[in-house]
TrEMBL record:
It comes from the Bacteria. PANTHER family: ANTITOXIN HIGA (PTHR40455). GO terms for biological process: regulation of DNA-templated transcription. Residues 88-117 form the HTH cro/C1-type domain. Transmembrane segments: none annotated. CDD domains: HTH_XRE. It comes from Thiopseudomonas alkaliphila. Belongs to the short-chain fatty acyl-CoA assimilation regulator (ScfR) family. InterPro entries: Antitox_HigA (IPR039060), Cro/C1-type_HTH (IPR001387), IrrE_HExxH (IPR010359), Lambda_DNA-bd_dom_sf (IPR010982). This is ImmA/IrrE family metallo-endopeptidase. GO terms for molecular function: core promoter sequence-specific DNA binding.
């Protein structure tokens, strides 16, 4: 075997080609030194040519037209793959891009490799993921401004759902780690017997992370900040006229994000806790029940998760607080939230049967009487108790 070296120049390439051709003329026996040399030269030449003479990817539209010509197809024959005659014309003249949905149908129907038809990076990423893009509540997400950068119609958004949703999910770090197949591994889910829509839940989580990423806090959260005494001090803000807003301001100034994001249909969420990409905790509230007492209990419950369970990992705690008989983690958070609002030692000695008694206990604890009345209603199961009294709406403080 003659001396073989890496091919680094055009001259090396030419010399290697000449040597390879001379060896091929010899027609060496397999396993001989000349045969081995020929194999090594072929590999070196192939590598050099890949690096220096790359073959350009075929144009997707030209590939479609070529296949049409091969099979004698007319524009109308593409309607089953693309959707309508106007869309076919727009695709073929280059004024409309292929959607991933179209690419899948064209690849299957015309036998064109999807790799050739893919034009956008997000399409390449989307096609590699096992996601049912049409399972997302796209219409509701669009209505709520989840796709502000998309200017087309709802029908167009559904056609380009894979691309739009890939951008949406990819806008936050580890967004694809929250997909339904990984939900049980990444989340602690407190839910009822109703069937939760996992794609709606995923979309809601991404929206919360987006909003938190846009929110700049004045400081980093210090582990151990949230404890029972700290929570009790915050609960006293409910005594003030602007209590909910003051509580959120206080939490923000302690390095905790608070995001208000209404729940999506079939998610049954009241709140959630997770860690943000900035390393600070996020409390997300849906305000699903438009009551002041519900806001304060939800807030305290999520704060309890921070105090007891959130340890800096990527786990989510997702809560439907209507659900009873839950696991130890949720019972711990419920107990701490109740203790922060009304200490058990005080609650046990209280007999609250009138509106005046509710007001007196609220004054003693310096908390909103709505919280006291809400506890009475919950524990008695009589949600009509006190009539129209103590039913302040949380929507009076936030734009829904």
């Amino acid at each position: 075997m003659s001396h073989i070296k890496l091919i680094k120049s055009a001259q090396d390439h030419e010399s290697a080609l000449m040597r390879l051709m001379s060896l091929m003329d010899l027609d060496p026996q397999p396993g001989s030194a000349e045969s081995d040399e020929m194999d090594v030269l072929a590999l070196l030449i192939e590598k050099y040519e890949e690096d220096h003479f790359p073959i350009s990817k075929p144009d997707p539209i030209e590939a479609i037209k070529f296949r049409m010509e091969q099979q004698g197809l007319k524009n109308r024959d593409l309607i089953p793959f693309i959707g309508s005659a106007p869309k076919v014309s727009e695709i073929l003249n280059g004024t409309r891009s292929l959607s991933l949905n179209m690419i899948r149908k064209l690849s299957s129907g015309l036998g064109i490799s999807a790799d050739i038809l893919i034009q956008l990076p997000e399409q390449k990423h989307a096609i590699q993921r096992e996601v049912d893009w049409q399972a997302f509540p796209i219409a509701e997400m669009r209505k709520r401004g989840y796709f502000d950068s998309f200017n087309g119609s709802l029908q167009e958004l559904k056609e380009y759902a894979a691309e739009a949703l890939s951008d949406f999910i990819g806008s936050v770090k580890s967004g694809f780690n929250l997909q339904p197949a990984l939900l049980r591994a990444s989340s602690h889910l407190r839910t009822n017997d109703k069937e939760t829509d996992p794609y709606a839940l995923w979309a809601w989580q991404i929206r919360v992370l987006q909003k938190a990423a846009e929110q700049k806090l004045p400081c980093q959260y210090r582990a151990g900040t949230v404890n029972l005494e700290w929570m009790q001090n915050i609960s006293k803000l409910s005594w003030l006229e602007s209590g909910p807003l003051l509580a959120i301001e206080f939490l923000n100034k302690s390095g905790i994000h608070v995001i208000i994001e209404p729940h999506l249909p079939k998610t049954y969420l009241d709140g959630a806790v997770c860690m943000g990409i900035d390393g600070n905790p996020i409390i997300a509230l849906t305000l699903r029940h438009n009551r002041l007492d519900s806001f304060w209990f939800s807030l305290m419950h999520e704060m309890a998760h921070i105090a007891l369970h959130l340890d800096g990992n990527e786990n989510w705690y997702l809560d439907d607080l209507d659900t009873q008989g839950v696991d130890d983690i949720e019972k711990q958070a419920d107990d701490m939230a109740r203790e922060a609002l009304i200490p058990q030692s005080i609650w046990c000695r209280s007999s609250l049967s009138s509106a005046e008694e509710v007001r007196e206990l609220a004054k003693e604890l310096q908390i909103s009487p709505c919280i006291v009345a809400g506890r009475v209603r919950f524990e008695s199961g009589d949600h009509k108790k006190f009539g129209s009294l103590f039913r302040d709406k949380i929507s009076d403080y936030f734009q829904r």
